[in-house]
DNA sequence: ACCTCCCTGGCC
DNA sequence: GGCCAGGGAGGT
């Protein structure tokens, strides 16, 4: 599902086409996709006719900066993906929003479960919204170990839910949080404030490589293929996952069967021998 | 810091 | 035919 590596892979595919392109038309087929936009009509009105200046990302949020201080925000939720198509290309089910560009291309937001959203925000709306409360980006702004330690100190919550808290660190989701904890050798239920400096150093050292690996493989497409790259290809990171989705299968490091439990309503996979 | 809700394809 | 997956917002 779309977490930081999937969103970044999407961004890298779209950026060369979107940058400098002009939005010629906007078609919203599911109004629910605009539920974060105070006045839904603003989405089309603010995008149409404007040129895209850049395509950025913070955590799992994609942000296209347009002329006139408009930011086109896209969040893929858990089943969303962006497709880059010719306007004549056949349309797949659950194409909920279509943004047509000059140059004869379209960006299509496909999202069966509709947990994703799009919006066109002005600077004050951006500053007042949830995006302003995101923590540092896990890939590009990861705090040094001492910084992580300071932000974990005194926290009684388990470390895994802390890693999923976008206000603590932006970009990790359920898959990569489990992968990070495996690589760091830390059990997901450990109280966040109880980690030793050495463990925090391991955690810090694990985050970059885990995300970079996922990104290098084009992200993780699960069996349902909810996430795909903008050209329709599947990400190939699934077969490289160390623990996520591997309940009962041997740990790749020690052979002990991978365990699964539900932690705060999220499936959690870990090796009880490698992770303490 | 916790719980509930949203939504739908796919699976049992 | 019913249940599960789950990111983020909102509420308690």
Give me the number of helical elements: 7
Q: Which percent bin holds the helix content?
A: 25-40%
* Percent of sequence in beta strands: 15-25%
Q: Which residue ranges are poorly predicted, with pLDDT under 50 across at least 5 consecutive positions? A: none
**What is the general shape?**
globular
Largest sheet: 4 strands, antiparallel
Quaternary structure classification: single chain
Distance between the termini: 27 Å
What would you report as the Rg, rounded to the nearest angstrom? 19 Å
Order the strands across the largest sheet as they lie in space.
Answer: 1-6-7-5
Total beta-strand segments: 10
What would the average pLDDT be, to the nearest integer? 92
Q: Care to describe what's here?
A:
The chain has 276 residues and is an alpha+beta fold. It is built from 7 helices and 10 strands. The strands form 3 sheets. A 4-stranded antiparallel beta sheet has the order 1-6-7-5, covered by helices on one side. A 4-stranded antiparallel beta sheet has the order 2-3-4-8. Strands 9-10 form a two-stranded antiparallel sheet. The longest helix is centred in the last third of the chain and has 20 residues, at 197-216. It binds a DNA duplex (12 and 12 nucleotides) through loops.
